[in-house]
From TrEMBL:
Residues 205-473 form the Phosphatidylglycerol lysyltransferase C-terminal domain. It comes from the Bacteria. It holds the Pfam family LPG_synthase_C. InterPro entries: Acyl_CoA_acyltransferase (IPR016181), LPG_synthase_C (IPR024320), Puta_zinc/iron-chelating_dom (IPR005358), UCP018688 (IPR016732). SUPFAM superfamilies: Acyl-CoA N-acyltransferases (Nat). It comes from Nitrospira defluvii. This is Phosphatidylglycerol lysyltransferase C-terminal domain-containing protein.
Amino acid sequence: MPSSACLSCDVCCRFPERDSFLRPFFTADEIGTATAAGLPPALFPHPDGSQIDLVPNPDGEGYVCPAFDCATSQCRIYEARPLDCRLYPFALMWDAMHEQVLLGWDTKCPYMRDQSSPLVAQAADEVAGWIEQDARVETLVRYPRLIGRFQEDVIVLRPLERVTERLRQGRMQVRTQALTLGDRERMEAALAVSAGVQGTPLAAASFAYHYIWRHRVTYSWAVLHDHLCLFADCPDGLFMALPPLGAGPLAQPLAEAFRFMRERNGDSRVTRVENVPEACINEVRALGYRATAKEPDYLYEASALSDLSGESLKSPRAACNRFIRERGGILEPYEPRDQRACVSLFHEWREQKQRAGADDWASALLADAAGAHETALSDTAELGLTGAVVRVGGRIRAYTMGLWLNPSVFCVLLEIADRDIVGLGPFVFREFCRQARAKGACWINTMDDSGLPSLARSKQWYHPARLLPNYIVTEC
Ligand code: SF4
């Protein structure tokens, strides 16, 4: 790559999100060299090999590698930059089925786009030959995260046979499949026979809870020892989004799933099982795993939310009464034709929240939430969701979506209400809970608070009957 091309380009070393999966990975040796060249060790979450922490772009939007000098467009550690960066715009990635390691070139690089095919082919031969040498192959075996996931905008140049063969040696042959809407029935059937997951389920014990986030997380599933295992591929590697689902003990499927994640993730601490309910914890602890509590789900009595009676619920009751007195309005079923108005309301609501002063974490959640709301609003029926809207002055000013976790527990998955209309939020929530109660709900689950104090306060305002413990399970 001629440096003139790199110095006039604005692609490399800059990233749209802080946790971009494209941020460079440094091996333990490369971290040592980079820190000796002046990068603070704190930029590397795991000294035994990790992706570097990005920093906000001082000159604009997004994030940059901390080694990048925005004033000169140069790498401050150019001679010590990691293999990941040395290869670019060539890239190592798995094919879509995660069966073959490929050498590709990233079409995001404008220089490569302008080069002739013979020149690219010659360079690819040289790079492939170099990568397939023993030293590099062993580095890739030790650090499998140097091989990225399949990307459609990376053009495949060569399969890397030696690397693939070496990585497959002694490894589990697990056939994973991308999670699609067509898998809802399969997953719900597996949830229904998972003893520990039923009872009073967490909101995560549902298909839609995960599927609506597929713009941020790539979900796949596999069957291990007759249990359906739901995996989530995030920027840092692969984890399980739920414990293995199915009838019978967890010992074998859990052991296989951890082995599979370890093979994919190497030493990364991303290897874990999320959303493990209390009822499974004695079993997993007895198997020698570590269980750590995360934010619990909020569970309410459906009758309490429907009536809002008594001194403790005086404030939400007064807010509902004020909305009815000043604005009127009824809860109507959500129809597909309401989609555009709801998406537009979401964006208005997000601006209201940001004007009110959302912190960094809350802002990041809000940015991510747009895609989840759009999926829920467009695939409502396929996801098994029930939706409702409230119109004020003929315009939709609130919408909500929910689903049944079992015949007696209804989960409120999304709720958006114009923050400038006093009492609208409590009104839509109460009316939606009333509808669920009329259909048999004894309990209402409103999910966790994502660690946000403002969200925790609004959930506490309704006095939850219980907090449902939720655990992350890791190997000791
Ligand atoms: S280490 Fe250097 S080449 Fe690699 S992303 Fe950072 S600034 Fe760019």
